[in-house]
Amino acid sequence: MTLFSNIPDKSSFKNPVVTIGNFDGVHAGHRKILEALRAKAEHVKGDPLVVTFEAHPKKILNPDNAPKIITTTDEKIRILTSMGFANIILLNFTKAMANMNASDFYNHLLVGRLGVKEIVIGYDHAFGKNREGNMDFLLELARETGIGVTRVDEEIIDGKPVSSTWLRHAIMAGNFIEANRLLTWNYSLSGMVVQGAGRGRILGFPTANIRPDDPDKIIPADGVYAVTVRFENGGTRHGMLNIGNNPTFENMDRSIEVNIFDFSDDIYGKPVTVEFHRKLRDEVRFRSAEELIEQIKKDRDDARAVLKNI
């Protein structure tokens, strides 16, 4: 895989076919666009190129209102690479880029520098200042330059078009039956294992406290989840994860802590990734530590039942 930080010269590729988008989540709707890109590139015997952005554009344009991200940059690149895309152009979205008008972006960068032969875009995509580069605008420019344009219709699930907004709501609600279906992969959260209060060990269920790698990443709703844990050496284990403030012990800080089944290694200071499969219950306040322990035992059984065939 070759990762470019700027628009490369046209001599780098054969009959380049390009798609442009933020692709946060690389979800089912994005995959429909990416498969169309692959098919078009094969048809013209060209190289498929994915142009995407390092930060969500809204983080630059409206930082106070920017959405939480579904995938970090590293996750997005890893997914695109796993799909077989060998050339990815990762641009640093800036205010200067946001103020570039659509015709300049098209003529100077896509045609003039990159030398595109075909453009594949989603049904609602627009680029350039004030999103002036919509489908009609692009078709007019394409007629003038002889570039082919393919518009990909929305991917419909349950009668609705798949979108990153819909997906964010599902993740934030902890609805991973829905979220993972929209993603076509299991939502994950990566971070470093840090020292916690040690209360889980006292209760008989030691936990690894996770500090997320990216503060902009979506943290699901408070509650208990059935998860898979991946370690840096490639190993995996099942577990149950709690997100919340531990109200039984009047803890004020929100934490993410996972009890890893059949595991006793020391992983403090090491990175882990948790994949979310199912929300088991909301976080609640118990009257005593003993009542909490009984509930945790039930949570463990419920998590094992969910994860049995995973």
Structural summary, described in words:
There is one protein chain. The chain is α/β, with parallel strands linked by helices and 310 residues long. It has two domains: 2-156, HUPs (Rossmann fold, 3-Layer(aba) Sandwich); 186-307, Elongation Factor Tu (Ef-tu), domain 3 (Beta Barrel). It contains ten helices and 14 strands. The protein has helices at 28-43, 57-61, 73-82, 95-98, 102-113, 135-145, 164-172, 176-183, 199-203, 289-307, and strands at 2-4, 17-20, 48-53, 87-91, 118-122, 148-152, 156-157, 160-161, 188-194, 208-212, 223-231, 236-244, 255-260, 271-281. The strands form three sheets. The protein has a six-stranded parallel sheet, with helices on both faces. Helix 7 runs antiparallel to helix 8. The longest helix is centred in the C-terminal third of the chain and has 19 residues, at 289-307. The protein is elongated and about 75 Å long. The model has no long low-confidence stretch (mean pLDDT 90).
Keywords:
single chain; 310 residues; alpha/beta; Rossmann fold; Elongation Factor Tu (Ef-tu), domain 3; six-stranded parallel β-sheet; six-stranded antiparallel β-barrel; 32% helix; elongated
Q: What is the fold-level CATH name, i.e. the topology of the largest domain?
A: Rossmann fold
Radius of gyration: 23 Å
Order of helices and strands: EEHEHHEHHEHEEEHHEHEEEEEH
The rough form would be described as elongated
**Spatial strand sequence of the major β-sheet:** 1-4-3-2-5-6
- Secondary structural class: alpha/beta
Report the sheet-strand fraction.
25-35%
The number of strands is: 14
Number of helical regions: 10
Instruction: Tell me the helix content.
Output: 25-40%
CATH C-level of the largest domain: Alpha Beta
